[in-house]
């Protein structure tokens, strides 16, 4: 059965009006084909993303966040294969397309111009032997052949300035920039062709906390001006509580809770979300002792029966081991837990 988590809310945080649905993901499953058989790292994920919305994806290391977003953008590499599901992308003009089955040629046309991705490590994405500006000009001109090199250079300067990098740094090689500048230049590059969707996989893990906050503040400001949608992946729930309109929490390859950042902050309904929230308290919350979630995430090749979180869950009973719980509406969120109501009483 497909687990569905639709957003019907027309407004996001800060009272922003969200546009129509941009991405409609249905029953997406991704397997890693290993010598011991397939390992499902993304299981039956369904979600929608609206124009201008920021969706955060949170979860511990190994929960399947990167697998999900690389499958969304069709950037997964063997041994990963999309085993089931669809990713419907609805452009402003033209018919919706399923990114899972779209031809490589049509997909190439969508990249950068419709969907752009910012990965964890700028060094893996930037060409080390090419000056920064030349890399921008290449991307800009590949998608707009009518633009002169001169105009593309002017656009590069504008993009760099947008993220607080002096335009003359276009002449630098990536290794001549600080880590923060490299990450910011990747964000600028992602915005080069004015995409409707930017997917970001831990885009600030390589920089220190102060730089991280600066980059995120800049990102929010840009997003409010340019209105692109963001799927933002991180293990740090506190960061998403500040940034995202909605948050999807992943555990063992599944979405276990999805809801508005406000609701997830105020009243997490899945015991795993509750644990994550305690492990990553909101930045502005009073200081208190941080506690991790006891135990470790399961081996995806050897999942426990029923709810994969049950062995670590303080509310678990035998009921939890009979079947994988489906996402269901609980209050304002969707939660995959059969014990939510009982856990609420115990909280
Ligand atoms: N190349 C691979 N071969 C086999 N299994 C893999 C491979 N890459 C990932 N996996 C499996 O997929 C799971 C999810 O990995 P993924 O990188 O999507 O998690 P993540 O939540 O993004 O973690 P992180 O925060 O560490 O990047 C891993 O725990 C592992 O079991």
UniProtKB/TrEMBL annotation:
It is a peripheral membrane protein. The keyword ATP-binding applies. Residues 25-277 form the ABC transporter domain. Gene3D superfamilies: P-loop containing nucleotide triphosphate hydrolases. Its main location: membrane. InterPro entries: AAA+_ATPase, ABC_Ni/Peptide_Import, ABC_transporter-like_ATP-bd, Oligopep_ABC_C, P-loop_NTPase. GO terms for biological process: peptide transport. GO terms for cellular component: plasma membrane. It is found in: Cell membrane. One of its GO terms (molecular function) is ATP binding. Keywords: ATP-binding, Cell membrane, Membrane, Nucleotide-binding, Transport. Belongs to the ABC transporter superfamily. NCBIfam families: oligo_HPY. This is Dipeptide/oligopeptide/nickel ABC transporter ATP-binding protein.
